[in-house]
Amino acid sequence: MNSPRSAARLEISTRQPRTFDAPRLPDGHRAPVSSYFGRHVLDLIKLREKLPREIYNALVSTLRHNTPLTREVADSVASVARDWAVFHGATHFTHWFQPMTGLTAEKHDSFADLNVQISGELRVLEKFSGSQLWQSEPDASSFPSGGMRSTFEARGYTAWDPSSPMFLVEGANGRTLCIPSAFISYHGHSLDHKTPLLRSLDALSRNATAFLKLLGDVDVKSVSATLGCEQEYFLVDRTHHALRPDFVLAERTLLGATSARHQQFEDHYFGSIPARALAFMEEMEYELYRLGIPVRTRHNEVAPMQFEMAPIFEDVNLANDHNVLAMDVARRVALRHDFVCALHEKPYAGINGSGKHCNWSMATDRGENLLDPGKTPHQNLRFLAFLAVCLKAVHDHSVALRWSVSGANNDLRLGANEAPPAILSAFVGEQLTDVIERLMKGEAAKDPEHFLLEMGVGKLPTLAKDNTDRNRTSPFAFTGNKFEFRAVGSAMNCAVPMTVLNAAAASALREMADRLKAKLGSDPKQRDQAVAELLREVFTETASVRFEGNNYSDEWKAEAARRGLPNLSDTPSALAAAMKPEHHGFLVKEAVFSQLEMDARFNVAAERYLKQVTLEAETLLDLLNGTVVPAVECQLEVTGAAWRVMSEAAGTAKGSAYGKRVIALAGGLESLPDGIAKIQAFLDGLHGGHDELAACRTLASQMRPLMQQVRANADRLESWVDDERWPLPKYREMLFVK
Ligand code: ADP
Ligand code: MG
User: Fold this and answer.
1) Nearest residue to 186 (alpha-carbon basis) of 146, 156, 158, 141
2) CA–CA dist 84, 165 (Å, integer)
3) pLDDT at residue number 150
4) Average pLDDT over residues 77-100
5) From start to end of 207-355, where are the E strands?
6) Cα–Cα nearest to 110, from 183, 180, 184, 174
7) Is the pLDDT of residue 580 over 50?
8) Which helix (H) or strand (E) holds 364?
9) Which end of the chain is less packed: N or C, by CB atoms within 10 Å?
């Protein structure tokens, strides 16, 4: 029989790695990356060459010191951008923004414009003005707004973000100039992920600079956050993907028996990269390099067909734009290689899902990493102070941080022994724990002169990265000179967790600065002593959030409960907790969100959860009704006929092994409509309800477990049905594509 599935098997087994037209040297070798890195980006180097000196200086001053941008600068940059883009084959431009859909959005306009010539005739010319660069006006009514915007005020604005450079995106037949932008409503409310991120960076910079001044670092003008995100993903053969309606609609498999071989041999992580996957990575990286995205690392991940890419870290706003763009490029390039790049947090049950570890730190305008222990006693003290800031941020704002990584898809992964649990704690390693605990005891406080030295602070050894021990199970782990926030999901826009983290740090900095000011008094000589006292307090107050052990263990769950740490195991519970003013008030206080915007975010989150789980349930019903039940019916006919022959002709008893097989098959078939009816009843019950959060809770606590039960039954039946008649590509096929 030639079913689509067996045809797919043949087709896929003969696929070859795809080659692409990479730039080559005269000797035929690949040209070095440095020769084309950033070619499709209008970066500061290019702008410096092309802009008049005073315009360039004004632009740089906007970027470095937040001086207001002028029309004159915008006009000049627009003119350079047009020439550069048109020269490189661009026909269109677009504001490129990040609405609350989790994807990016764009609306292209042609550079070509009708121009009236001196003689009065109309001619087409390429035009692009400063005001077109400055802002654009897409209809906002079709984007999620969380109820902030009524349809009669549908207007929204996208506004140029000069801190992230313009770039060219390539279509099959031309290029488009993309302008990274913020997206705000007619009334100035944020409708996107970039605006709050930029505001959180302002808050962080403001509060960190003030705190540093108190520490004696009076020259620091601004502080930024840095981000390097390790992006995990799966590759699914395109033909397999097309044969799985669940993958196509819900971006994950809702059915599928576990493959006998999966990840149990631990042979995939860092294994040699399969040839087709490597070919995909090479082409993707080429595209990313041209876009100025500094991808550095590529490797196989734990699950079969799971991979990771990681860039060199950058300023968080740029790094986030780069990550969003990289996800887009990965999806597009994968198709050329007959793959679908599955960024979903849990495409397959039973094997690891995908995350996006966000490596995060804070740096001064002089480029000093504030989480780098440093070499002098002063640098060490400053380092410990910023370590305390981070612990306080996680301790005080764990609910908001937990909420920032929630979502229907990440729920399938968090706390499942493959990703950190929903309990937020921080890991700092043995060496720092020792320093912190000695500081907390503060016995040497009697001798202020030598206090720091005796505490070990003065001689804190440089924590070489390789020196710090590792804890793979911690949601927020110190790794030598940065924290790694591991709970972020692979498909998420990490602007959301980064916004909350920046704001949490800003809030901790504000409070610590106030307390330090009160301690400092008039004698600056007492400063180190005052700082040490503050650190002792903060380390003590936040002790409950430090955990060095195995975060996957049940003992930790019990211990965390004793410590009073929240364990918000799914999105509805994280959402309900975050909605309480005491848990999100700091985001409003630090001016990252207005209260209206905050409420809108919660509405969007509930709505998305509801839509996602409902979509999964409907897709599952579709598969059960249209695929699983018919396949089992056919099988029962064959098995039943064989049974009749056996019992009539050979007298085989009902209680025989074969008899039991028939009964089990019939029983399985019988229970499917039962599950289908229950899921349907739940879906029907959801309509007409007004309390979205309550509906989310029902979905989490009842619908998802029910779907799981029905799935288990269907998966058992999968192995009883004639392999040739099972229409859906099986896990064993999808996961072991060569
Ligand atoms: P590790 O093995 O500790 O995970 P890597 O060197 O592989 O470390 O780094 C992982 C990611 O962390 C990379 O994207 C890297 O650029 C990033 N990273 C390194 N230092 C910083 C920093 N100071 N701030 C933010 N990210 C950083
Ligand atoms: Mg890492």
Assistant:
1) 156
2) 13
3) 60
4) 96
5) 223-237, 295-300, 306-311, 314-315, 339-342
6) 174
7) yes
8) strand 356-364
9) N
Ligand 1 atom nearest 481 alpha carbon = 23
Ligand 2: centre distance to CA 387 (Å)? 19
Q: Tell me the one-letter amino acid at 610.
A: L
17-56 confidence digits (pLDDT tens): 999 999 999 999 999 999 999 999 999 999 999 999 999 9
Maximum pairwise Cα distance, the chain: 105
Between the CA of 33 and the centroid of ligand 1 the distance, in Å, is 21
Coil, helix or strand for 251? coil
What torsion, rounded to 10 degrees, do the Cα atoms 249, 251, 254, 256 define? 120
Q: Which of 274, 339, 329 is nearest to 301 (CA)?
A: 274
Query: Contacts for 172-177 with beta carbons within 8 Å, 24 or more apart?
Result: 174/89, 174/90, 174/91, 174/92, 175/40, 175/85, 175/88, 175/89, 175/90, 175/91, 176/90, 176/91, 176/92, 176/93, 176/94, 176/106, 176/108, 177/81, 177/85, 177/90, 177/92, 177/93, 177/94
Other Cβ atoms less than 10 A from the Cβ of 368: the count is: 15
Q: Which two tokens stand for residue 730?
A: 């099986």
Indicate whether 417 pLDDT > 80: no
Q: Are 222 and 327 in contact (CB under 8 A)?
A: no
- Chain Cα centroid distance, residue 38: 24
Strand, coil or helix: 99: strand
Report the pLDDT value the prediction gives residue 468, as an integer from 0 to 100: 61
Phi and psi angles of residue 426, each rounded to the nearest 5 degrees, phi first:
-125, 145
Q: How confident is the model at residue 358 (pLDDT cuts 50, 70, 90)?
A: very high
Q: Which of 408, 546, 407 is nearest to 475 (CA)?
A: 546
Residue 115: count of CB within 10 angstroms of its CB: 12
Task: Determine phi and psi for 315, rounding to 5 degrees.
Answer: -55, 140
645 within ligand 1 shell (Cβ under 6 A): no
Atom number, ligand 1, closest to the C-alpha of residue 227: 25
Q: Are 145 and 163 in contact (CB under 8 A)?
A: no
Atom of ligand 1 nearest to the CA of 228: 14
Cα–Cα distance for residue pair 251/241, rounded to 1 Å: 9
Which contiguous run of DSSP H or E holds residue 180? strand 175-185
Closest CA to 489 of 683, 385, 346: 346
From the CA of 231, which ligand is nearest?
1
Percent of the chain with pLDDT over 90: 78
Reported in sequence order, the residue ranges of 76-174 that DSSP labels E, i.e. its strands, are 90-97, 105-106, 109-110, 112-116, 122-126, 135-136, 156-160, 166-170
Distance in angstroms (rounded) separating the CA atoms of residues 558 and 273? 40
Which letter, b or e, does each residue of 400-430 get, where b requires 16 or more Cβ atoms within 10 Å of its Cβ?
Answer: bbbbbbbbbbbbbbbbeebbbbbbbbbbbbe
How many C-beta neighbours within 10 Å does residue 444 have?
18
**Percentages (nearest 5) of helix, strand, coil residues in the chain:** 50, 15, 35
CA of 312 to the centre of ligand 1 (A): 7
Residue 179 parent element (H or E): strand 175-185
Residue bearing the CA closest to ligand 1, atom 14: 228
Residue 295: CA count within 13 A, CB half-sphere: 25
Which residue matches tokens 């025989």? Answer: 656
Q: Tell me how far apart the alpha carbons of residues 730 and 719 are, in angstroms, rounded to a whole number.
A: 10
Q: Token pair for residue 106?
A: 């764009």
| Average pLDDT over every residue of 233-261 | 96
